[in-house]
Amino acid sequence: MTTKSNEDEYFAREEVLKKEKLALDQAREMREKERDELKQLHWMHCPKCGLDLQTVSLRGVAIDRCFHCDGTWLDAGELEKLGAHESEQRGAVVRSILNIFGDPKKAK
């Protein structure tokens, strides 16, 4: 091989790598855009019936409530906060629920 063909091959590989990187960047941006659009579309909408959720305070914890289907939705950590307010006997129910769904802190 001549030096000229080595240079041509090098620049051709560099061009391919640039185009691959560009395609990956575009795919990532498209996924992020789609995720943001989905979040905007579903933000504060009931996952069960699709109507608007309302934020209400329960024992000092802001929870999301659907007054159409009576669904109550908790964000990460809110169940534990509600459980902290329970008496020792009633707290067993919350601990049982946490055992079923697992402790997200232990999973990490």
Explain this structure to me?
This protein is mainly alpha-helical and 108 residues long. The chain folds into 2 domains: 43 residues; 54 residues. The protein is 57% helix and 11% strand. The protein has a 3-stranded antiparallel β-sheet with strand order 1-2-3. A hairpin with a 6-residue loop joins strand 2 and strand 3. Helix 2 packs antiparallel against helix 3. It is elongated. The N and C termini lie far apart (54 Å). The model has no long low-confidence stretch (mean pLDDT 82).
Helix/strand/pairing class, anyone?
Answer: mainly alpha
Please mark out the parts with pLDDT under 50 across 5 or more consecutive residues, or reply none. Answer: none
Strand neighbour order, sheet with most strands: 1-2-3
Shape: elongated
Radius of gyration: 26 Å
Please tell me the total number of domains: 2
Taken as a percent bin, the fraction of beta residues is 5-15%
The SSE string, one letter per element, is: HEEEHHH
Number of strands: 3
Distance between the termini: 54 Å
Please estimate the helix content: 55-70%
* Mean pLDDT rating: 82
What labels describe this entry?
mainly alpha; 108 residues; 2 domains; three-stranded antiparallel beta sheet
Give a summary of the structure in a few sentences.
With 108 residues, the chain is mainly alpha-helical. Helix content is 57%, strand content 11%.
Any chance you could write out the topology, listing elements then pairs?
Blueprint: H1 3-42, E1 54-58, E2 61-65, E3 72-73, H2 78-84, H3 91-101, H4 104-107
Antiparallel strand pairs: 1-2, 2-3
Helix pairs in contact: 2-3
